[in-house]
Every structure is written in C-alpha cells, then in structure tokens.
Amino acid sequence: MDPESIRKDFPILQKKVRGKPFIYFDNSCVTLKPQQVIDAVTGYYTDHTACHGRSIHAFAAETTREFERSHRSLEKLVHAKKGEVIFLKNCTEGINIVANGLDLKEGDGVVTTTLEHNSNLVPWLKLQRDKGIDHKMVSVDETGVLDMDVLAETVDKNTKLVSLVYTSNVTGTTINAKEAAKIAHDNGALLMLDAAQTVPHHPVDVKRNGIDFLAWSGHKMLGPSGTGALYGKKDLLEKLGQFIVGGETVKDVRPPGWDVEDLPMKFEAGLQDYAGAAGLAAAAEYLMRLGLDKVEQYELKLGKRLYEGLDAIDGVDRLGPKEAESALVAFSVKGVDSHDIAMVLDESANIFVRSGQHCTHYYHRTQGLKGTVRPSLYIYNTAEELELFLEKLGEIIKMLS
Ligand SMILES: Cc1ncc(COP(=O)(O)O)c(C=O)c1O
To answer: Which of 105, 177, 174, 114 is nearest to 140 (CA)?
Structure first.
C-alpha cells in the first residue's frame, strides 16, 4: 500500500486550513472521500436522476440497474449472498431494524458488553424499558478486551441474541467473531455484530464466521455521509419483522394487511438515497481494489507506532491492550480536559482528532473518565503525519499540564 498515491485520489487533501496543510485523524467518525466516490454520487444527479423500480423510463431503468449493482458490491465486500445486504442510512438504523424486528418478549435475553457504542446499547435499554427484555452487559477486562469465557458464562438458553461491538471505537480491538458465534449458537441464540469500525479496516467474512446479522456505516469506509448497511442471513431476514414500513416494502396492499416485498426491499422503506448507494458501492470497490488485508496490515503498522508513541509521552493514559490491533485508540491525560487537547491540536497544528466520550458514555463511566482524545488513522495517513502528531501532542500536554 502506498499512501502517497492513495492521497492523490482525495481532493480534500489539497485543501489548506489556515493557509497550511492539515492532518485528518478523525477517521473513526467519518473518513474523507476519494474522487471515485464523489463521481459516483454526482453521476446520479448529472446522468440519471430518477427513482428505482417504480417508473419505467430510461433514467429510472439506469437508477434501478445502479442501485442493484450497488447491492452486489456491498454483498461482495462482506461475502454475503444476493439479497442479504440491505442499504440503509447508517449502522444505527441496521441495529434498530434487528432490535425491533426480532419480536422480543418480556424476559427474552439479549447480551451485550460494557464497551458498546450507544448505537448497540440504547436500542436494548429501550426494549428493556418498554418490553421488559432481560438485557445483560458482560464486563470487558481492564484493558477493554472481551474475555470469551466470561461471555460464555453469561449467554444461556434464555438468550435470544448476542449483540457485540466487532471492533471497538475506543480501543481498536476486534473480537473473535467465530468464537462469539459458537457461544451464541450453542445456546440457540443469534449473533449480531456492530461492524462500524471493522468493515472499513479489516477483511470481513460473514459466512466463514457464522455471523447472523452485521451492521455497518458507509461514512466510515470512504462512502457518503448518511449511508450504511445491514447484512442478515437470508432465512433470518425472511423471518424478521418489518420495522419501518410504507412504499417499496410491499408487493400489494389488502387492508387490513399487505404482501411483504422480497429482500432486500422488505427493509428499504421509501425512496432511497441512490446517489449515496452509488457512492457507497464505489467506496466498497475502492477498498476491495486496495485489498482489505493490505489495509489491515498498513493500519497495524501505524497503530503499533501510535501506541508506542503515546506510551512514551508523560501523562498519557491510554485505553486498550498492550499491543495495537488497529490505528485507533483513545487516551486521557490526568487533570487536562480532552476537548482542550483536541482544540489546541486543531488551532495550533491543524491536526483533527475527536475528543469526548465517542458515544461510549457507559464505558467511559465504568473507567471513571469524563472524556478521552481519540486519534484514528486511515489509508491516506502517513508515518510522517503520525510523527508530527506525537511531537505536537507531547508539547501540548506539557503546556496544559
Ligand atoms: C462502534 C460503532 N458503532 C456504531 C456507530 C454508529 O454508526 P452510525 O453513525 O453509522 O450509525 C459508530 C459510530 O461512531 C461506531 O463507532
């Protein structure tokens, strides 16, 4: 992987901020977009603006073809079969579709962890409050890693779903999906993984790992903002209840009922973001061309240096295990507000990172942390940028402490 040639595909990297180049280390939130994605998005508006499926004119036919082609690219990305990937607006929507479609009843068990992003926590808290489901949170260890033995002790015959963060957005660690699937399936439960931070950075194979549902975001994998997807095994999606219904989700309507549409349209309610889908497919194709194994290796190299560099700075208290698993991690500095560090990095060095709780409010509370700073790197970030970040961070922490 050559980050210098990759950088040429990203027009925004030519931009100057305060008259100088910038360093973008906020990729776990949203990644930058290559020209290929921008062209795919604008192509819908400049070449064939129309809705899919409904009208029969030339533009509509092309939009239908493109929308279907986009699905094929997303299926290929995670090794799913035709019809098993639903195009959505984000990862959160995917998790909510499963949470509300499973028809969970009072007392049904759902197991998550204390490390979850709010997107894979609040839907279960809501079902606990509204329906009385039995939601259990498995504590991760002191480095934020999920011990599979502890998971196995918690999942039981009452568990209907095990829903876990695949790659953490604060520690960068990835769970063993195959083991998690075995634990769930041995107890007659299903496994859903929140792969918002996995699909953009690691090869993902839903079939090889026995994953039942997988939700992820498009905007964190070079795709347009407000795009995402949900994978589900065909038979499970066929059984899953509809959450959002209306146009496109039905074949016919016979009050008081309706005939449910085939997959994936059963879950793609209303007119879709065709430009977004085309852009997301272009992003998937871009990543597959690079090779997700190469992306993973490159990020691991950056991640190792990030961990080593952070650990060498006085006052930095880093989350996550000893060894890096990816190029993202959150850290705190005693007595210094995380937002102050992020603000000074931005204003004095044009380095963009995220600060706060990163939608892991509960995990931060378990760690007694008000907030953390999170650098998250991606394919266009360079070793030189990382060195500059570490140098500036050291100076800023000295100044603020
Ligand atoms: C681990 C994880 N899960 C879920 C989400 C939510 O993703 P989206 O905004 O696409 O719904 C995020 C976003 O930060 C995330 O990092």
So the answer is: 114
